[in-house]
Amino acid sequence: MRKMMYALLVSMVAISMLAGCGSKNSNSNSANSGQSASNESTNNASTNNGATNNADTAASGQIAKIGLGHITSIGSSKDMEGDTLATAQVDTTIVAAAFDKDGKVVKIEIDNAQSKVDYDKDLQVATDLNADNKTKVELGEDYGMKKASSIGKEWYEQAKALGDWMVGKSVDEIKAMKTKAKDDHHPAVPDEADLASTVTMNVSDFIAAVAEAYDNAIDVKAGAEKFGLGNNVSLAKSKGLSTNDGQEVLPAAEVNTVMVATAFDKDGKVAGTIIDNAQTKVNFDKNGKVTSDKNAEIKTKVELGDEYGMKKASSIGKDWYEQARALGDWMVGKSVDEIKGMKTKQKDDAHPAVPDEADLTSSVTISVQDYIAGLVKSFDNAK
């Protein structure tokens, strides 16, 4: 009996020990299972972070915003004195830039409209006011810088090299460019190793215009792939010394530089556009002396805002910048052909092409032919 009881007790202890071992292994497996799940979760998180980073990388470098910057000077205008005849010179630096979501330059166009109105000894306009006025980029080899360049590069080539250097950089990085003074006319020539053989012109205005383009940048529709700058320059409203109803009319040069920066999608439709006009006047007295302040800040029509003063004379109560913005908004989503096909009507001699579209009649009464032409140029120049 005792032997039977002893055998039964041993069996029970053995079973208990086996059960304990089984329980321990089960807990260990659960712990290992938990660790594996944790590792799997961590691995999945790494994969997701990689996908997110890839998405961010894909988004970086795509056009998210576009901006237009410009600086205008009349400082090189000349008085009539001795053998020197009066000349109005308007230099408008133009920088159109496309930025990604991180504020880095994706695409950029740099140009300068150097426009001159010459006067003869009687202070009559000697320049052909109906001539085609080209910017420095449009002039290309005809601008004539190459022969005087220490690196044998024309203006448009140097502007392109500077723009290429800016691509991929933020505005702060661009503003931090190392420069050096070459002479009084070149106080800020690039002092960067990768620009030494490609850019020797003064770059201060270009850098300032890039910063302005960024500060004024607007959002564009998703899918923008190409970006272009269009412009047209007119001297047609310039006048010489004359009289009108017995009153003396003094010489005055007027240069209108229309600028249109546009982003296009893969189908060539407008994803966003900015329209502006630098209407610059250089006034002279009856002796041919410049009376305009050569050092004054010159603002475009958009920069002037309500100060431009169109609103009080507008039949729809809108100033120029408001009408330009409404016109640009109307262009978004349309192809160049659709925009060129806009219905217009002649209001008077000064307004030969006012929109005759139902959705523009309450927002745009300015003549739009020059702005449409600028948009077309921006498409033709888009890259």
Protein topology:
Elements: H1 2-59, E1 65-73, E2 87-99, E3 105-118, H2 136-139, H3 155-166, H4 171-175, E4 179-180, E5 189-190, H5 204-215, E6 218-219, E7 224-234, E8 242-244, E9 247-249, E10 252-265, E11 270-283, H6 301-304, H7 320-331, H8 336-340, E12 344-345, E13 354-355, H9 369-380
Antiparallel strand pairs: 1-2, 1-6, 2-3, 4-5, 7-10, 8-9, 10-11, 12-13
What's the alpha carbon Rg, rounded to whole Å?
Answer: 34 Å
Instruction: Tell me the β content.
Output: 15-25%
Count of alpha and pi helical runs: 9
Instruction: Indicate the overall shape.
Output: globular
Low-confidence stretches: 1-58
- In helices, the fraction of residues equals 25-40%
Number of domains: 1
Supply the helix-strand structural class.
alpha+beta
Give a count of the beta strands, DSSP E runs of length 2 or more.
13
Distance between the termini: 103 Å
* Strand adjacency order, main sheet: 3-2-1-6
Characterize the largest beta sheet: strand count, sense, and whether it forms a barrel: 4 strands, antiparallel
Task: Spell out the helices and strands N to C.
Answer: HEEEHHHEEHEEEEEEHHHEEH
Look at the structure and give the mean pLDDT.
Answer: 88
